[in-house]
Sequence to fold (209 residues):
Amino acid sequence: MTYSTNDPDAPSPFPVIASHVCRFWRSVALGSPSLWTIITFPKRLQYKRPTIWLERSKSLPIDITVNVFSETHVSTVLDIIMPHVTRWRKLKVAVDQNVLMDMVLTRLAQCTGAPLLEILILRYFKYNRGSTQSSLVPFHGNAPRLSYVILTFVSISWSSPFLHDLVKLELVGRKKDTRPSWVDLSRISPGTGQHSFGTQMNDRCHNIF
Fold:
């Protein structure tokens, strides 16, 4: 069983509660890395708890959720999580500025690989200001387990090898020129995957394959 970090003002999650019951429970909780593998960086500039959870998860695969709304915040969070890229199982990043998503994509492109990554979700929420576009290739194209990708108003290099053979690709964006071509789609998921497009944030995406 796994639990996530929460907003510091919210009730403490079970692993934290368990680790404060008594010495025995604390020993058990701290000795159970699987309790600490779902890690959330909240909107507020709070880094202590997520950093502790990263340490306590030891070498296990981790699921990371990041909500960033300032350049200082995104830079600090990326500095914290990048050393653990080989353990990422799921990465979800939400930003509200183009420059922040550019920073995220630049750092992801500097990674030599994400061997355990299965799910990648990148969301840019200020959709009324257009989409982010980048020719950068995250993870140098090396994410062999990646099967599920969601991009909200984010456009990347569709020819990137890390997008090949996906099980599901979900795109949300207003501009057709930021979407992959049919040739790209056939390469991304040749005959077996699901692709869906949406034109508004509240649209219901519909499968086209």
Remarks:
- DSSP finds six helices and ten strands in the chain.
- The longest strand covers residues 88-95.
- Helices lie at 14-18, 23-30, 48-56, 71-81, 98-110, 182-188.
- The CA atoms of residues 137 and 153 lie 17 Å apart.
